[in-house]
């Protein structure tokens, strides 16, 4: 059985079996991260808002919540919440009394990635399925699975599927997100800062040239003035001190 991980701001959430659509009368489990002590599953429904697992619905098992017999009233928005009030991203759960559901990612799909939509019946099968986006027919897949390669923003929309003799699924919204930027910027400057290692390399390379040039200039001065060697050495030392 697949587990679909949901990216959260704090504690990761898993939905088992994977997908946001559930058949009426079936069971599913929502879990906060195993080591997330103090996290609980909460939900909003059309009947009641901000209720916690175990409060007239579901069975709380640590940071997990299991709903054994799914009812239409279990349709709603679910999330994890800590004692401090930190919350996760939300997951929309749809309960259907029909015979077909569409399993699709509940998280945004990154541009350039591949995504598979699975049209399945209450009794698992591999029947052909028709897929639709925003009400328009896309194509028929003989296996009941449709894969979209190299996803782009234009693939975002409301999807559903239909299996002849069984009916159609509830709609499922597919969100496409742009990948995070990879460029590096240097604030308040158009030139990247010089690292200590590069600075040391510059000093090692250029200092000998500076010292050699200074010595040659000093020798030339001493010869031109005809002064003694002691005066010459004093001048060199003085110039080196100024250089440092």
Automatic annotation (TrEMBL):
GO terms for molecular function: transmembrane signaling receptor activity. One of its GO terms (cellular component) is external side of plasma membrane. One of its GO terms (biological process) is cell surface receptor signaling pathway. It comes from Myripristis murdjan. InterPro entries: Ig-like_dom, Ig-like_dom_sf, Ig-like_fold, Ig_Fc_receptor, Ig_sub. Gene3D superfamilies: Immunoglobulins (2.60.40.10). The lineage of its organism: Eukaryota, Metazoa, Chordata, Craniata, Vertebrata. It holds the Pfam family Ig_2. Residues 12-96, 98-164 form the Ig-like domain. It comes from the Eukaryota. Keywords: Disulfide bond, Signal. This is Ig-like domain-containing protein.
């Amino acid at each position: 059985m697949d587990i679909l991980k949901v990216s959260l701001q704090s504690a990761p959430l898993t939905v088992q079996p994977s997908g946001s659509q559930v058949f009426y009368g079936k069971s599913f489990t929502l879990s906060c991260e195993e080591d997330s002590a103090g996290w609980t599953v909460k939900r909003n429904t059309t009947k009641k808002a901000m209720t916690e697992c175990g409060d007239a619905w579901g069975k709380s098992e640590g940071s997990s919540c299991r709903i054994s017999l799914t009812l239409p009233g279990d349709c709603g928005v679910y999330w994890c919440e800590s004692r401090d009030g930190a919350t996760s991203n939300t997951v929309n759960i749809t309960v259907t009394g029909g015979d077909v559901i569409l399993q699709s990612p509940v998280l945004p799909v990154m541009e350039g990635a591949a995504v598979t939509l699975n049209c399945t019946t209450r009794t698992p099968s591999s029947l052909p399925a028709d897929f639709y986006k925003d009400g328009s027919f896309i194509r028929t897949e003989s296996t009941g699975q449709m894969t979209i390669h190299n996803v782009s923003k234009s693939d975002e929309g409301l999807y559903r599927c239909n299996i002849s003799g069984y009916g159609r699924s509830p709609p499922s919204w597919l969100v496409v997100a742009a990948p995070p930027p990879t460029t590096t910027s240097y604030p308040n400057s158009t030139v990247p800062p010089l690292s200590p290692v590069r600075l040391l390399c510059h000093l090692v390379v250029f200092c000998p040239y500076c010292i050699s040039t200074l010595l040659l200039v000093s020798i030339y001065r001493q010869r031109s003035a005809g002064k003694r060697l002691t005066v010459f050495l004093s001048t060199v030392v003085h110039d080196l001190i100024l250089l440092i």
